[in-house]
Design goal:
By secondary structure, the chain is of the alpha/beta class. The chain has 5 domains: 2-65, no CATH class; 112-279, Rossmann fold; 283-324 and 386-517, Rossmann fold, CATH 3.40.50; 327-385, no CATH class; 526-605, Ribosomal protein S10 (Alpha-Beta Plaits).
Amino acid sequence: MFYYEVFILGLNLRPLTYHSKTKLEIYSLVLAPLSKNTKQAIILKEVKKPKFQTLEILSICDEKFSNIQKTLAKFISYYYACNLGMVFKIFTPFKSSNFINHNFDKTPTLSPLQNKALNFVTEHKTSLVFGDTGSGKSEIYISLIVKELNLGKQVLFLMPEISLTPQMEKRLKEYFGDFVGVWHSKITPKKKQNLLKDFEDGKIKLIAGARSALFLPFTNLSLIVVDEEHDDSYKSATKPRYNARDLAIFLASKFDIKVVLGSATPSLTTYKKQPYFRLKGTFFKSSKEVIYDENETQISSKILKEIKACLENKNQAIVFLPTRANFKYKQCKKCGEIIKCPFCSVGMSVHKDKNALICHYCGYTTYQNASCDKCGGDTFEAKRMGTSEVLNALQKAFKEANIAKFDKDEITTQRKLTNLLKDFNDRKIDILVGTQMLSKGHDYHNVKLAVIMGIDTGLAYADFRAREKTLALCMQIAGRAGRVGNAKVLIQTKQADFFKSYLDKYDEFLEDETEFREDLYPPFTKILRVLISHKDEKIANEITQKCLEIIPKFKDIEVIGHGKAVIEYIASKFRYEILLRSHTYKNLVMLSHVLEKIPNVEVDMDAIFFS
């Protein structure tokens, strides 16, 4: 009889001990009884016969994990302090793998500068293509992919999920035909099943996918391209809290895999840590006129004037603002109190189409005209205009124009995304009003005006990356206009000096930001966020104090700050946080494994979300 510790997949449990009549391989996938259910489990290690009675492993699964998957899972479990059962749950196992050789003849025509960039990334194991909008990064990626596929290898092309459009898929298929598979959260289980079969059979060699595509069963992977590497969507906000970009770089250090990162607005971390090729273009400077509007966030006369001129010239416009719904919150006119969600310490967003106030954190909805909890007043003022309100205002101002909304409330399926982008590029829509989704690398052919509203809110966040994120977002939205010919960008801001200094000088911004962060923040230090949450505020505070007592036992770790989280209360739980800093990751990792075992404590290595 053989005895094994196993982790149950998807459950945050300690290892459990089972027995088997046959010897099993470590990291084998098995079926094991748990309570009255049968669960998939992963074999952790063989152990001696325990003193207690054990249950028998029911069967060995046909599927298995590749060497790449096993190595990556172990690293995620270690670095992000998450048990292997939770980690292996996000991986897709495989039954077999085959390879079909095929020669790809079609390649893009590259300029001399693009050829230099191609040679640069070919010579480096990991590298960054720091390329302006419209400078031709995609052609470099495709040239690299052709080379690897012709060697019989597999390639992974990572991008933010919202960028995985049929438009992008069509472009890849022009070069790689049916050897391309697209993987993201919105494809149906049946499509995923068919794609996996074709992938295992060798019929698919190139996977274009969101961050979860990194966990597919690659057995012959030689190239990972991470487009828009600065994008926060590569970081998981739930357990395990990995960053797919960083995991790609880790794989390059362990296997014969090349990693190419790309962005027009790279993160400071990547800029400082990776060798880069600067692919400059005259696209931004030569084709854009930037207009500044110092009004408060509103549909100003300046905005209306520019949109009117744009429409009269038979052109299209995009309008960005960071808030969806009609307004961010309602405020009592009598005492200034904000109507908050009873389960979260956040203002409730105004949705006029539903005649409702909705919490965007827990989903709580109220349809009643609420009175002020503080003073009983019944007159309110709506604040922080959102996409729905701007849409309504523009529809009244431009009755003949076709105006559409592009945010999470509107785009709920992949089909809706596909149809909206197609209609916009077919010029059936004149103005697109949206949130950050507007910035995600979509190729708008006829946009001659980009209006950016509410951008100052990003600069006010309590986040060491606030300037970087806000400037990058502004540049990404501006980059959607004037893909062909001239265009205008109108930025509504009280911080015009900041944007004037850096809008077309991102290199200069990165150097100035380096001075600001040196010795204090990433990439010069490592950050660990510890989040404590509990329904009883007293207990949440006690757990926080317990964590603070443990921290000094670990060397070279500085407490940056601790106390109530920015959002103090979500889904009826009180939230406290501790922010830690160190110049090396090892002590933080050791500490995170200790703290993670405390109930109601979550740890986040290399945190980028601080709400």
